[in-house]
């Protein structure tokens, strides 16, 4: 029996992905059918619906579903991928992150006694002021569906309760469009420099191509600019994608109010108040702690807490460490899970037989090194910032730009995140990219 189990595990696609990273594990193009891999997780989330979560047998069912949901979620990017992989780097990054996040949330959903233990409820400022009438079975199902979709799909938690507790969004659709065009100017500039770095072979060569090289320290300046461009590329791309989702929600609200009444479960999910911008001015952060805790996007915060922060803090508490050491342990564990997530993601961006394949456990783990260095910087910064001219903002830029280099090289290697859909820089590409926000790639 043990031999049979070993054989099954050895041939399992998920296991082979990590134990035999050089071997090609074929993937099919993503289809609507592939979303069924997420269905067990959505159903598990639905069992936390307040009127149901108090039922003991459903509590056990949620717990028993956890291994299935974790396995199905992790297998999704193994069996499916966006093709061709050399032109779909960002798509496969999103696919990997979604699968990892669903697997992590399933662990929490399966272990909670009820929704109250997980603090899964709407913040008062987001809840509707309209009274909730006694609901018929049909409307009760609608309420369950809206609640489930909201819990399972929100990257920052139900009603933006995970992470920065921002005020409800008040931007109009026109405000969103104006902000998108402002972001797009930065996005096009940093993407152009990143493409030059890719096509010229190095950041230094890109600087020379622009006629700015040939001075002492040009390599340091070039690498710093390339890392800065990498960071702003991530910020602007994520924010622009989320802005398009926000415009879609505004459109649905307009259709609902002016043309035709849409289903209640859909309109409860499409609440413009929850469309808070992804980033909170990370460029103005005066400390790494503020950058990661308050300014950067919070899409993975709950994942890091579930798999790393909460268990590590509890372990430190059981070991009777001081409250300060408990916090440090939790923080380090969160960044460790972040390191795992980004290594996991880059594998699915560039899996075999990708021309720039990333081989897990064999290639240099640039993103892991970057995220494992962050807690060290956070611990040291209170002692260093007072002695740095310019204070915390200068410290943040110096630390992040210097530690980002291996992360950038890992993700921006040709045909990975900056894939072949991004053409060579030209004036026609530059001006056409300015017209439509976020469309710097060409399919």
Q: Secondary-structure map with pairings?
A:
Blueprint: H1 2-11, H2 13-19, E1 28-29, H3 39-46, H4 50-53, H5 56-79, E2 80-81, H6 89-111, H7 137-153, H8 173-200, H9 203-209, H10 218-258, H11 264-269, H12 288-295, H13 301-318, H14 323-349, H15 366-384, H16 391-411, H17 427-435
Parallel strand pairs: 1-2
Overall description:
This protein has 443 residues and is mainly alpha-helical. It has 3 domains: 30-123 and 142-153; 168-278 and 425-442; 279-412, no CATH class. It is built from 17 helices and 2 strands. A two-stranded parallel ribbon has the order 1-2. Helix 5 runs antiparallel to helix 6 and helix 15 (366-384) runs antiparallel to helix 16 (391-411). The longest helix is centred in the middle third of the chain and has 41 residues, at 218-258. The chain starts with a helix and ends in an 8-residue tail after the last helix. Mean pLDDT is 89; it is low at 129-139. Pfam families: MBOAT_2. InterPro entries: Wax_synthase (IPR044851), Wax_synthase_dom (IPR032805). One of its GO terms (cellular component) is membrane. GO terms for molecular function: O-acyltransferase activity.
């Amino acid at each position: 029996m043990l031999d049979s189990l070993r054989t099954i595990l050895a041939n399992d696609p998920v296991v082979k992905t990590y134990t035999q990273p050089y071997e090609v594990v074929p993937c099919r193009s993503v289809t609507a059918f592939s979303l069924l891999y997420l269905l067990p997780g959505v159903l598990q989330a639905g069992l936390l619906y307040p009127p149901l979560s108090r039922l003991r047998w459903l509590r056990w069912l949620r717990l028993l579903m956890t291994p299935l949901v974790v396995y199905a979620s992790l297998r999704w990017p193994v069996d499916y991928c966006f093709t061709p992989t050399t032109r779909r780097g960002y798509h496969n990054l999103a696919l990997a992150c979604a699968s990892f996040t669903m697997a992590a949330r399933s662990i929490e959903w399966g272990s909670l006694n009820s929704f109250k233990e997980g603090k899964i409820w709407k913040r008062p400022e987001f809840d509707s002021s309209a009274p909730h009438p006694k609901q018929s079975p049909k409307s009760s199902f609608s309420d369950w569906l809206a609640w489930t979709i909201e819990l399972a799909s929100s990257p920052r938690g139900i009603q933006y309760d995970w992470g920065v507790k921002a005020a409800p969004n008040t931007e109009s659709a026109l405000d969103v469009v104006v902000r998108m065009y402002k972001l797009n100017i930065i996005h096009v500039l940093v993407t152009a420099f990143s493409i030059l770095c890719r096509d010229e072979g190095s950041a230094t060569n890109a600087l020379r191509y622009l006629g700015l090289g040939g001075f002492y320290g040009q390599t340091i300046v070039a690498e710093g600019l390339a890392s800065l461009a990498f960071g702003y590329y991530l910020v602007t791309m994520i924010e622009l994608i989320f802005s398009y989702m926000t415009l879609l929600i505004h459109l649905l609200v307009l259709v609902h109010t002016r043309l035709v009444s849409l289903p209640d479960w859909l309109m409860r999910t499409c609440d413009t108040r929850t469309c808070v911008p992804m980033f909170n001015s990370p460029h103005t952060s005066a400390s790494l702690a503020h950058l990661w805790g308050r300014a950067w996007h919070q899409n993975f915060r709950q994942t890091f807490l579930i798999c790393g922060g909460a268990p590590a803090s509890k372990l430190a508490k059981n070991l009777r460490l001081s409250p300060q050491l408990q916090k440090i342990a939790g923080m380090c564990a969160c960044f460790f899970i972040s390191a795992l997530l980004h290594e996991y993601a880059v594998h699915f961006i560039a899996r075999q037989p990708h021309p720039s394949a990333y081989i897990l456990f064999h290639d240099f783990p640039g993103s892991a090194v970057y995220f494992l260095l962050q807690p060290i910087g956070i611990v040291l910064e209170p002692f260093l910032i007072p002695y740095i001219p310019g204070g915390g903002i200068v410290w943040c830029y110096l630390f992040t730009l210097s530690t980002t280099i291996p992360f950038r090289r890992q993700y921006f290697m040709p045909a990975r995140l900056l894939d072949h859909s991004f053409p060579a820089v030209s004036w026609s590409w530059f001006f056409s990219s300015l017209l439509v926000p976020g469309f710097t790639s060409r399919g």
